[in-house]
Amino acid sequence: MSTELILRKAVIQDLADVVKIFKAAIRVMNDNGIDQWDSIYPDREILKEDILKSQMFLGKINDRIAFVVVINQECNEEYKNGNWRYEGDPFVIIHRLCVNPDFQHQGIGKCTLMLIERMLKKKNIKSIRLDAFSLNPIALKLYDKNGYKRVGKINLRKGIFYLYEKKIKI
């Protein structure tokens, strides 16, 4: 990718654009038969709360939002069923990774993961955890190809989600 991807925290003024991106991504997923997100999750209030907690990050290219991601240590109770390999190490959890449909199929997902890993390495975070919808082949391929290992599965509102973990290289 020849254009620079800039990572920054989202601010409340970004909310309207973030909501538009999620709605567009949901339409694209639905068009591709992926029933992962809807009007219930993630809704405007969830996204607003992510921003207010300073947990949402944006990736921008030429002042346009290319992706949105939430990084924190909050997880569903079912995460306790994961076969986590790096239990004692500091970790974070990635949620709601959403590539703007205008930027899909350009390697943004991979670049996003690399940017996140670089940022977390500087903060001495040792591993990343996340869950991915079992019926979202695009997300599964992204995580599988980028060194994330499946460590379990959980059942959420929309069905089975795979738990993933990756050790951040020192």
CATH superfamily: Gcn5-related N-acetyltransferase (GNAT)
Kindly give the count of domains.
1
- What is the CA-atom radius of gyration, in angstroms? 15 Å
CATH architecture tag: 3-Layer(aba) Sandwich
State mean pLDDT (0 to 100 scale): 94
Strand-residue proportion: 25-35%
Assign an overall shape. Answer: globular
Low-pLDDT runs of 5+ residues are none
> Can you count the beta strands?
7
**Alpha-beta content class:** alpha+beta
Query: What is the CATH class designation?
Result: Alpha Beta
Q: Give the helices and strands as they follow along the chain.
A: EHHEEEHEHEE
Helix proportion = 25-40%
Query: Remind me, CATH topology?
Result: Aminopeptidase
Spatial ordering of strands, largest sheet: 1-2-3-4-5-7-6
Number of helical regions: 4
Largest sheet: 7 strands, mixed
Determine the N-to-C terminus distance: 25 Å
Account of the protein in words:
The model has no long low-confidence stretch (mean pLDDT 94). This protein has 4 helices and 7 strands; from the N terminus they run βααβββαβαββ. Strand 4, helix 3 and strand 5 form a beta-alpha-beta unit. The chain is 29% helix and 31% strand. The longest helix has 17 residues. The protein has 170 residues and is of the alpha+beta class.
